[in-house]
Amino acid sequence: MGKPVATDHLSTARPALRYLALAGPTASGKTAAALAIARQHPVEIISVDSALVYRSMDIGTAKPSAAELATVPHHLINLRDPLQAYSAAEFEHDARRLIGDISARGKLPLLVGGTMLYFKALMHGLDDMPRADAGVRAVIEAEAQQHGWPALHAQLARVDPVTAARLNPADGQRIQRALEVYRVSGQPLSAFHTAKPVPGDTAQDKAPAGQALISLEPFDRAWLHARIAQRFDAMLTQGFLDEVKALRARGDLHPDLPAMRCVGYRQAWEALDGLWPLAELRDKGIFATRQLAKRQLTWLRAMPQRRVVACDAPDALDQVLAHAEVFASAFFKDLT
Predict the structure, then answer these.
(1) Which of 186-200, 226-240, 302-316 is predicted with the least confidence, judged by mean pLDDT?
(2) Cβ pair 95, 122 in contact under 8 A
(3) If you placed Cys at 169, which of 75, 147, 150, 295 could pair as Cys (CB 3.0 to 4.6 Å)?
């Protein structure tokens, strides 16, 4: 959808955008809330999810059902084959184009998801980072094979403690990239992720005019943990393991691909590789999903402009709809 832009470079020219965003950790109820908004207002949904972009990955990503996708136009879902990567820079490019197109059709762009780096790319842009260096990457890969990714994670903690703190010690893909950036540029990856003002902003803690971010955040973390467990159990019942087996059977995918490193898929792949008993898949998958939710909440809490709705409150949906009503009324008034 649109010509891909360079993964690590974005133009600094970013015209003002108008959209409503709905964010939150995994299993917080974003899909249901988005569909409720769509029943009340003419919207088109732009997915802000790095896993939903992949085709043939439906169960493990909790992708909206065919019926749900048919109720309202959705974008940036089923965009890539799992063999292909999709970057935050490409998302920023595609989302900007879609926001303009949807607005031109007289509808409200509704951005929904939990990939916080995508939200950051859209709201503040991504600082220019060094491009991939095959030589440096090969050296890091060799070190990982010799010492293991936890050892390289410890190395990263010495030069970039901010990035290391948010990465799992076994997350080879991201550890490799963070070390690569440091070795190529001499600067930590976290230095490139500092927020930059969006043209027209007067303060970083203020959302640009014409934009609103509703954030679903649990008051009681145990509520979210229970939802995560229920959803993972449902995925297993629906055939998640068979879905991963089918992906493996293609023969061209491997566990280091971004698609196969998505939460749940990585754990299932490792179990099928015999790295640990298959009986442990449920516990490992739930734990990894909880860790993902924790990271998502950390990102969200660094966004002071968000409008928080306790997703475990009895009237959570009513609160979301009330926020959406205020924003939509102003949005459509300005369109006329």
Answers:
(1) 186-200
(2) yes
(3) 150
